[in-house]
Amino acid sequence: MQTTEKEIPLGPLSFHVEITGQGEPLVLIMGLGAPGDKWRPNVAAYQEHFQCITIDNRGAGRSSKPEEDSYSTARMAEDVIGIMDALSISKAHINGVSMGGAIAQHLAADHPDRVRSLILTSTFASVSNSFRRAIETLRDAIDQLDGHTFKRLNQWMTFSQITQNTKEQMLLTAEKEDMAYPYPMPHYAYKAQCNACLNHNTADRLKEIKAPTLIAAGDCDLFVTMEKTMELYEGIPDSQLYLCRGGGHVHEWEHLKEYNAATLEFLLAHSGK
Fold first, then answer.
1. What are the pLDDT digits (tens) for 206-260?
2. Contact, 122 vs 216, CB < 8 A?
3. Within 10 Å of residue 100's Cβ, how many Cβ atoms?
4. What span, in angstroms and rounded, lies between the C-alpha atoms of 33 and 31?
5. Cα(71)–Cα(102) distance, integer angstroms
6. CA angle 230-33-119, nearest 5°?
7. How confident is the model over 24-44, as a mean pLDDT?
8. Burial state string for 17-56 with b = 16 or more CB within 10 A and e = fewer than 16
Protein backbone atom coordinates (compact mmCIF):
# COMPACT_ATOMS: atom_id res chain seq x y z
CA MET A 1 0.00 0.00 0.00
CA GLN A 2 1.28 3.44 -0.92
CA THR A 3 2.85 5.67 1.72
CA THR A 4 2.55 9.46 1.58
CA GLU A 5 5.27 11.55 3.19
CA LYS A 6 4.58 15.03 4.52
CA GLU A 7 6.48 17.79 6.26
CA ILE A 8 4.25 19.48 8.85
CA PRO A 9 5.27 23.00 9.96
CA LEU A 10 4.53 23.84 13.60
CA GLY A 11 5.84 27.28 14.46
CA PRO A 12 9.59 27.32 13.86
CA LEU A 13 9.78 23.51 13.68
CA SER A 14 8.97 21.01 10.95
CA PHE A 15 7.86 17.42 11.51
CA HIS A 16 8.22 14.52 9.10
CA VAL A 17 5.26 12.14 8.98
CA GLU A 18 4.38 9.11 6.89
CA ILE A 19 0.77 8.15 6.19
CA THR A 20 -0.17 4.63 5.09
CA GLY A 21 -3.49 2.81 4.81
CA GLN A 22 -7.08 3.84 5.17
CA GLY A 23 -9.71 3.88 7.88
CA GLU A 24 -9.77 5.50 11.29
CA PRO A 25 -6.52 7.33 12.11
CA LEU A 26 -3.91 5.47 14.15
CA VAL A 27 -1.05 7.68 15.36
CA LEU A 28 2.15 5.75 16.16
CA ILE A 29 4.68 7.47 18.43
CA MET A 30 8.22 6.10 18.42
CA GLY A 31 10.66 5.89 21.31
CA LEU A 32 14.05 7.25 22.27
CA GLY A 33 16.47 7.99 19.46
CA ALA A 34 14.46 6.35 16.68
CA PRO A 35 12.59 7.67 13.62
CA GLY A 36 8.94 6.95 12.98
CA ASP A 37 9.61 4.55 10.13
CA LYS A 38 10.73 1.98 12.71
CA TRP A 39 7.00 1.24 12.95
CA ARG A 40 6.88 -0.18 9.40
CA PRO A 41 6.73 -3.88 10.43
CA ASN A 42 3.69 -3.04 12.55
CA VAL A 43 2.12 -0.72 9.97
CA ALA A 44 2.15 -3.69 7.58
CA ALA A 45 -0.43 -5.35 9.86
CA TYR A 46 -2.45 -2.23 10.70
CA GLN A 47 -2.74 -0.57 7.28
CA GLU A 48 -5.62 -2.65 5.95
CA HIS A 49 -7.83 -1.44 8.78
CA PHE A 50 -6.43 1.94 9.82
CA GLN A 51 -4.82 5.04 8.40
CA CYS A 52 -1.40 4.85 10.05
CA ILE A 53 0.43 8.09 10.84
CA THR A 54 4.04 7.67 11.95
CA ILE A 55 5.93 10.66 13.29
CA ASP A 56 9.59 11.57 13.61
CA ASN A 57 9.67 13.13 17.09
CA ARG A 58 11.53 16.38 17.57
CA GLY A 59 15.23 15.61 17.36
CA ALA A 60 14.81 12.39 15.35
CA GLY A 61 14.74 11.38 11.71
CA ARG A 62 13.78 14.17 9.33
CA SER A 63 12.04 16.38 11.88
CA SER A 64 13.59 19.55 13.28
CA LYS A 65 16.27 19.20 15.92
CA PRO A 66 15.87 22.15 18.28
CA GLU A 67 18.17 23.03 21.15
CA GLU A 68 18.49 20.79 24.20
CA ASP A 69 16.23 22.74 26.56
CA SER A 70 13.12 22.25 24.39
CA TYR A 71 12.55 18.53 25.02
CA SER A 72 10.03 17.02 27.42
CA THR A 73 7.45 14.29 27.04
CA ALA A 74 4.68 16.83 27.71
CA ARG A 75 5.96 19.18 25.01
CA MET A 76 6.31 16.31 22.54
CA ALA A 77 2.69 15.37 23.26
CA GLU A 78 1.72 18.87 22.14
CA ASP A 79 3.76 18.28 18.97
CA VAL A 80 1.53 15.28 18.24
CA ILE A 81 -1.63 17.31 18.84
CA GLY A 82 -0.32 19.99 16.49
CA ILE A 83 0.33 17.39 13.81
CA MET A 84 -3.16 15.94 14.27
CA ASP A 85 -4.61 19.45 13.90
CA ALA A 86 -2.58 20.06 10.74
CA LEU A 87 -3.89 16.79 9.27
CA SER A 88 -7.49 17.62 10.32
CA ILE A 89 -7.62 14.58 12.63
CA SER A 90 -10.10 15.28 15.41
CA LYS A 91 -9.73 11.91 17.13
CA ALA A 92 -7.33 8.99 16.72
CA HIS A 93 -6.18 5.69 18.13
CA ILE A 94 -2.76 6.20 19.74
CA ASN A 95 0.08 3.70 20.13
CA GLY A 96 3.27 4.84 21.81
CA VAL A 97 6.35 2.73 22.51
CA SER A 98 8.81 3.45 25.34
CA MET A 99 9.36 7.25 25.30
CA GLY A 100 6.51 7.37 22.78
CA GLY A 101 4.27 5.75 25.38
CA ALA A 102 5.30 8.39 27.91
CA ILE A 103 4.34 11.05 25.36
CA ALA A 104 1.04 9.25 24.74
CA GLN A 105 0.16 9.35 28.45
CA HIS A 106 0.38 13.14 28.47
CA LEU A 107 -1.67 13.30 25.30
CA ALA A 108 -4.42 11.06 26.70
CA ALA A 109 -4.55 12.89 30.04
CA ASP A 110 -4.45 16.40 28.60
CA HIS A 111 -6.63 15.80 25.53
CA PRO A 112 -9.06 12.98 26.35
CA ASP A 113 -11.44 14.04 23.59
CA ARG A 114 -8.74 13.37 20.96
CA VAL A 115 -8.09 9.69 21.84
CA ARG A 116 -10.28 6.78 20.63
CA SER A 117 -8.09 4.13 22.22
CA LEU A 118 -4.62 3.97 23.69
CA ILE A 119 -1.85 1.35 23.48
CA LEU A 120 1.11 1.82 25.81
CA THR A 121 3.98 -0.41 24.68
CA SER A 122 7.08 -1.06 26.81
CA THR A 123 6.59 2.18 28.66
CA PHE A 124 6.45 3.72 32.11
CA ALA A 125 4.69 6.33 34.23
CA SER A 126 7.74 6.85 36.45
CA VAL A 127 11.38 5.86 36.13
CA SER A 128 12.79 2.87 38.02
CA ASN A 129 16.33 2.95 39.39
CA SER A 130 17.50 0.36 36.85
CA PHE A 131 15.93 2.29 33.97
CA ARG A 132 17.54 5.51 35.18
CA ARG A 133 20.97 3.87 35.28
CA ALA A 134 20.48 2.42 31.80
CA ILE A 135 19.39 5.72 30.24
CA GLU A 136 22.17 7.63 31.98
CA THR A 137 24.66 5.06 30.67
CA LEU A 138 23.43 5.47 27.09
CA ARG A 139 23.32 9.26 27.38
CA ASP A 140 26.86 9.47 28.71
CA ALA A 141 28.27 6.84 26.34
CA ILE A 142 27.16 8.33 23.04
CA ASP A 143 30.00 10.89 22.99
CA GLN A 144 32.61 8.29 23.94
CA LEU A 145 31.84 5.29 21.72
CA ASP A 146 31.94 4.80 17.98
CA GLY A 147 28.57 4.31 16.31
CA HIS A 148 28.94 0.56 15.88
CA THR A 149 29.82 -0.05 19.55
CA PHE A 150 27.04 2.25 20.73
CA LYS A 151 24.46 0.34 18.66
CA ARG A 152 25.71 -2.93 20.16
CA LEU A 153 25.35 -1.52 23.68
CA ASN A 154 21.83 -0.31 22.94
CA GLN A 155 20.85 -3.71 21.53
CA TRP A 156 22.21 -5.51 24.58
CA MET A 157 19.91 -3.40 26.74
CA THR A 158 16.77 -3.48 24.59
CA PHE A 159 16.54 -7.05 23.21
CA SER A 160 15.80 -9.82 25.69
CA GLN A 161 18.55 -12.27 26.59
CA ILE A 162 16.43 -15.01 25.02
CA THR A 163 16.38 -13.19 21.69
CA GLN A 164 20.10 -12.45 21.87
CA ASN A 165 20.85 -16.14 22.42
CA THR A 166 18.48 -17.56 19.81
CA LYS A 167 17.90 -14.93 17.09
CA GLU A 168 21.31 -13.53 16.23
CA GLN A 169 20.29 -12.72 12.66
CA MET A 170 17.55 -10.41 13.96
CA LEU A 171 20.14 -8.38 15.85
CA LEU A 172 22.54 -8.29 12.91
CA THR A 173 19.79 -7.05 10.60
CA ALA A 174 18.69 -4.38 13.07
CA GLU A 175 22.27 -3.22 13.55
CA LYS A 176 22.85 -3.04 9.78
CA GLU A 177 19.67 -1.02 9.26
CA ASP A 178 20.54 1.40 12.05
CA MET A 179 24.06 1.97 10.76
CA ALA A 180 22.75 2.61 7.22
CA TYR A 181 20.07 5.11 8.26
CA PRO A 182 20.76 8.32 6.28
CA TYR A 183 19.48 10.83 8.87
CA PRO A 184 21.66 10.36 11.97
CA MET A 185 20.55 11.97 15.22
CA PRO A 186 22.81 14.68 16.65
CA HIS A 187 24.26 13.69 19.98
CA TYR A 188 22.79 16.73 21.75
CA ALA A 189 19.29 15.76 20.55
CA TYR A 190 19.73 12.15 21.69
CA LYS A 191 20.87 13.31 25.12
CA ALA A 192 17.94 15.73 25.29
CA GLN A 193 15.51 12.89 24.59
CA CYS A 194 17.25 10.82 27.28
CA ASN A 195 16.68 13.63 29.76
CA ALA A 196 13.03 13.88 28.68
CA CYS A 197 12.64 10.21 29.61
CA LEU A 198 14.44 10.64 32.94
CA ASN A 199 12.24 13.61 33.87
CA HIS A 200 8.96 11.95 32.88
CA ASN A 201 6.44 11.27 35.64
CA THR A 202 2.72 10.81 35.10
CA ALA A 203 2.13 8.44 38.04
CA ASP A 204 -0.27 10.86 39.70
CA ARG A 205 -2.17 11.47 36.46
CA LEU A 206 -2.91 7.92 35.31
CA LYS A 207 -6.44 8.05 36.75
CA GLU A 208 -7.15 10.95 34.34
CA ILE A 209 -6.73 8.66 31.32
CA LYS A 210 -10.25 7.70 30.25
CA ALA A 211 -9.62 6.11 26.84
CA PRO A 212 -9.77 2.31 26.51
CA THR A 213 -6.16 1.32 27.19
CA LEU A 214 -3.99 -1.71 26.47
CA ILE A 215 -0.69 -2.07 28.34
CA ALA A 216 1.71 -4.15 26.22
CA ALA A 217 4.89 -5.33 27.94
CA GLY A 218 7.64 -7.91 27.70
CA ASP A 219 8.31 -9.96 30.82
CA CYS A 220 12.08 -9.86 30.14
CA ASP A 221 12.30 -6.08 29.66
CA LEU A 222 15.49 -4.79 31.31
CA PHE A 223 14.30 -1.17 31.08
CA VAL A 224 10.67 -1.32 32.17
CA THR A 225 10.33 -3.69 35.11
CA MET A 226 7.12 -5.55 35.90
CA GLU A 227 6.67 -3.19 38.84
CA LYS A 228 6.48 -0.26 36.43
CA THR A 229 4.22 -2.16 34.04
CA MET A 230 1.83 -2.86 36.93
CA GLU A 231 1.95 0.79 37.95
CA LEU A 232 0.37 1.61 34.58
CA TYR A 233 -2.06 -1.31 34.64
CA GLU A 234 -3.30 -0.59 38.14
CA GLY A 235 -3.28 3.18 37.71
CA ILE A 236 -5.29 3.50 34.48
CA PRO A 237 -8.97 2.69 35.06
CA ASP A 238 -10.23 -0.46 33.30
CA SER A 239 -6.99 -0.97 31.36
CA GLN A 240 -6.05 -4.31 29.82
CA LEU A 241 -2.68 -6.08 29.96
CA TYR A 242 -0.89 -7.99 27.20
CA LEU A 243 2.27 -9.66 28.49
CA CYS A 244 4.75 -11.04 25.96
CA ARG A 245 6.55 -14.07 27.37
CA GLY A 246 10.26 -13.87 26.67
CA GLY A 247 9.94 -10.37 25.24
CA GLY A 248 12.36 -7.57 25.95
CA HIS A 249 12.01 -3.81 25.61
CA VAL A 250 11.44 -4.17 21.86
CA HIS A 251 9.08 -7.15 22.00
CA GLU A 252 6.95 -5.46 19.32
CA TRP A 253 9.70 -6.53 16.89
CA GLU A 254 11.09 -9.58 18.69
CA HIS A 255 7.66 -11.22 18.68
CA LEU A 256 6.18 -9.33 15.77
CA LYS A 257 3.26 -11.61 14.84
CA GLU A 258 2.06 -12.00 18.40
CA TYR A 259 2.30 -8.28 19.14
CA ASN A 260 0.59 -7.27 15.91
CA ALA A 261 -2.21 -9.76 16.50
CA ALA A 262 -2.83 -8.67 20.10
CA THR A 263 -2.76 -4.94 19.37
CA LEU A 264 -4.82 -5.23 16.19
CA GLU A 265 -7.49 -7.19 18.04
CA PHE A 266 -7.65 -4.41 20.65
CA LEU A 267 -7.80 -1.66 18.03
CA LEU A 268 -10.56 -3.34 16.07
CA ALA A 269 -12.56 -3.88 19.26
CA HIS A 270 -12.51 -0.12 19.83
CA SER A 271 -12.95 1.13 16.27
CA GLY A 272 -16.18 2.64 15.02
CA LYS A 273 -16.91 4.11 18.45
1. 999 999 999 999 999 988 999 999 999 999 999 999 999 999 999 999 999 999 9
2. yes
3. 29
4. 6
5. 13
6. 35
7. 97
8. bbbbbebbbbbbbbbbbbbbbbbeebbebbbebbbbbbbb
CA gap 192, 266 in Å, rounded: 33
Model confidence over 209-222: pLDDT tens digits?
999 999 999 999 98
265 backbone φψ class: left, alpha, beta (φ>0; ψ -120 to 50)? alpha
Are residues 224 and 247 in contact, defined by beta-carbon separation less than 8 angstroms? no
- Average of per-residue pLDDT across 4-24: 97
Q: Are 115 and 107 in contact (CB under 8 A)?
A: yes
Amino acid at 129: N
What 3-state class would DSSP assign to 92?
strand
Least Cα distance to 121 among 139, 104, 107 occurs for: 104
Domain spans, the chain: 3-269
Alpha helices for 142-206 (secondary structure H): 147-158, 161-166, 168-180, 187-198
At 139, is the secondary structure helix, strand, or coil?
Answer: helix
Q: Give CB contacts under 8 A, 24+ apart, made by 171-180.
A: 174/253, 175/148, 175/151, 178/151, 179/147, 179/148, 179/151
Please give the C-alpha separations between residue 165 and each of 110, 169, 179, 226, 252, in angstroms, as whole numbers. Answer: 42, 10, 22, 22, 18
Distance CA 9, CA 90 (A): 18
Mean pLDDT of the chain: 95
**Side-chain half-sphere CA neighbours of 222 within 13 A:** 14
Neighbours of 63 (CB within 10 A): 25
Q: 3-269 — its CATH code? A: 3.40.50.1820
pTM of the model: 0.96
Indicate the length of the chain as a whole number: 273
pLDDT in tens, 59-78: 999 999 998 889 999 999 99
> Residue 266: helix, strand or coil by DSSP?
helix
Cβ(97)–Cβ(122) below 8 Å: yes
